[in-house]
Design goal:
GO terms for molecular function: diguanylate cyclase activity. Keywords: Membrane, Signal, Transmembrane, Transmembrane helix. Pfam families: 7TMR-DISM_7TM (PF07695), 7TMR-DISMED2 (PF07696), GGDEF (PF00990). Residues 434-568 form the GGDEF domain. By secondary structure, this protein is an alpha+beta fold. It is built from 19 helices and 21 strands. Strands 1, 3, 4, 6, 8, 9 and 12 form a 7-stranded mixed sheet that branches. A hairpin with a 2-residue loop joins strand 18 and strand 19. The longest helix is centred in the last third of the chain and has 39 residues, at 367-405. It is rod-shaped and about 130 Å long. The model is unreliable at 1-26 (pLDDT under 50).
């Protein structure tokens, strides 16, 4: 009797085990189909992980299925997962149901088995690398039709074989809802990728015009991010019908995102020149990521599994460098830290989702894409700030160049700038054989105007003379304030007599132009002018100025208020 008890105990335990197994099998809730409008996107099902990846269908039927939602993520250790769904048609007429697997594009294979009263009635195998089995694939989604007879109950067993990470959602629709879902999918991803594409084109154009590396690195970051988003979230599968191993190897683009982000940081923060410690940290992280990406060319599964660790390393390093830049009061550090912080937060949620640690929802499944987009927008602000800074710097440089080359009172060229510009024009005149004339203008008795009315009126006189000269000169003529009250004009393609005509017009106009001293008082002034034509065989600026100056003094000696041509 004592010997029999262990056997009885064993039989009891086996019976209980079978009972629990049956309860577990029966515990999967039945999805009752009532009426015609069916849209089941949230329901309970059962799943079982085949760790051996070699179980037969009959062996799977004997396993215990764990109850879960119809959307799950199980990580990298559940590459072969079985799902059980119970459906029942409560209608008095036949009903056609459609099972959707919207993320089928990233799976290696999906198999569907229909069981009625414990008997296998239909099976289908969708291998994403076998074109002969893609009749159940539509725009990246696996769609299986299921025929239900009146009041019939079916058990649906779905086998999902993943390349790396196991995550999926299974939904049930009627014919009308199935069409609506398929037509509306990927809309959000198309919008996201479209925005990134616009930023890519804009920054490539900026790089071509400015040759600044940060524009190129940012554009490459966007290219990798946009391509990975389109691939990972089904847009490429939807548009180009790329599935299976080909699509899976495209995930190498994920490695390009942190690589180009690090290059962007190194260029924007100028770490090589200004921050050697931070530069070394970024550089070594960059080398590790490049190595992992190259390794992925030979073993992408291992590379993607290791990428989680390397991504964590990258996030720690980049956040540390960002904080360091913020402490050092770098002008764009706050923008970068904010954008990169959002990227890190959403990427961590995505990594936890792929590992099966957090629930299946839109934010977690699209975490990396959301993070890339938010960071891309913040980086675009940094790009805009850099552009404004460069434009401000260029404007300042132009202002300094203008101050260095022009006279502050008249805004005409100063003597040094005139000599440079005149030398270039005379060189061109030698090549073209065109005549060039030089005109020097001096205000008569300018000292008397300053002594009688003050230097403010003297400045008015010079500005008045400048305005009159501008009104009579061409845009190609070169004007300069050569001395205190002495102005000079270089006239390309102008004979001496033509220069004389222009000089007389200036003199006569100014002679009748009043300068207001007080509300009730005005003063008039006259000028003396010397004109010469640059010698054809000796195109020398200083010699031409000297000849025109001699003509000017001849006009002064002849009584002022006149124009005088140079004569030997």
């Amino acid at each position: 009797m004592t010997c029999i008890r262990p056997y009885l105990l064993m039989l009891v335990l086996l019976s209980l085990s079978g009972l629990f197994s049956a309860v577990s099998w029966a515990a999967v809730p039945v999805q009752v189909i009532q009426g015609s409008g069916v849209k089941l996107e949230q329901f309970q099902m059962g799943y079982f992980v085949d760790e051996t990846q070699q179980m037969t269908f009959d062996e799977v039927l004997q396993q215990t299925f764990k109850i879960s939602k119809n959307s799950i993520s199980l990580g990298t250790h559940a590459k072969t997962t079985w799902v059980k769904i119970e459906v029942e048609n409560s209608n008095a007429t036949p009903f056609e149901l459609y099972l959707h697997h919207p993320y089928a594009y990233h799976n290696r294979a999906i198999e569907l088995y229909e069981v009625v009263d414990g008997r296998l009635t239909r099976e289908r195998v969708l291998d994403t690398d076998d074109k002969n089995t893609l009749q159940w694939m539509y725009r990246g989604s696996a769609v299986f039709d299921i025929a239900l007879q009146p009041h019939q109950r079916k058990t649906l067993l779905v086998k999902s074989i993943a390349y790396s990470h196991q995550w999926f959602a299974l939904n049930l629709y009627d014919a009308d809802q199935s069409k609506r879902v398929l037509l509306s999918q990927s809309t959000d991803i198309s919008l996201l990728v479209g925005m990134l594409l616009a930023l890519i084109i804009y920054n490539l154009l900026l790089f071509l015009s400015s040759r600044l590396k940060e524009h190129l690195y940012y554009a490459c970051y966007l290219i990798c991010g946009g391509y990975w988003i389109a691939l990972s979230y089904g847009l490429i599968a939807d548009v180009f019908e790329v599935y299976g191993a080909t699509a899976f190897h495209g995930h190498l683009a994920l490695g390009g995102i942190p690589i180009f982000l690090l290059l962007f940081m190194m260029t924007t923060f100028e770490t090589k020149r200004k921050y050697p410690i931070e530069h070394k940290a970024l550089l070594w992280t960059l080398i590790i990521l490049v190595g992992d990406t190259l390794y992925g060319l030979f073993d992408i599964v291992s590379a993607l599994q290791d990428s989680t660790t390397f991504a964590a390393l990258m996030m720690v390093v980049t956040l540390s460098v960002s904080v360091s830049m913020l402490i050092r009061k770098h002008p764009v550090a706050l923008y970068f830290l904010l954008g990169h912080g959002l990227f890190v937060i959403f990427s961590v949620l995505a990594v936890l989702f792929y590992k099966g640690e957090v629930e299946f929802n839109y934010i977690n499944t699209h975490g990396v894409g959301i993070g890339i987009m938010l960071e891309a927008l913040m980086l675009s602000l940094i790009i805009a700030y850099r552009i404004r800074s460069l434009e401000s710097m260029k404007a300042t440089q132009l202002d300094l160049q203008l101050l260095a080359s022009t006279d502050p009172l008249t805004q005409l060229l100063n003597r040094r700038s005139f000599n440079t510009a005149a030398s270039k024009l005379l060189e061109q005149a030698v090549q073209t054989g065109q005549p060039t004339s030089v005109v020097i203008i001096d205000i008569d008795d300018f000292k008397r105007i300053n002594d009688s009315y003050g230097h403010a009126v003297g400045d008015k006189a010079i500005k008045q003379l400048t305005d009159v000269i501008r009104s009579h000169c061409r845009c190609e003529d070169v004007l300069a304030r050569y001395g205190g009250d002495e102005l000079v004009i270089l006239m390309p393609n102008t004979l001496q007599k033509e220069g004389y005509i222009v000089a007389e017009r200036i003199r006569q106009t100014l002679e009748h132009t009043a300068i207001k001293v007080d509300p009730g008082e005005s003063v008039y002034m006259t000028i003396s002018i010397g004109i010469t034509e640059v010698e054809e065989n000796r195109r020398d600026v200083q010699e031409a100025i000297s000849r025109a100056d001699k003509a000017l003094y001849q006009a002064k000696n002849n009584g002022r208020n006149q124009s005088q041509l140079f004569t030997e």
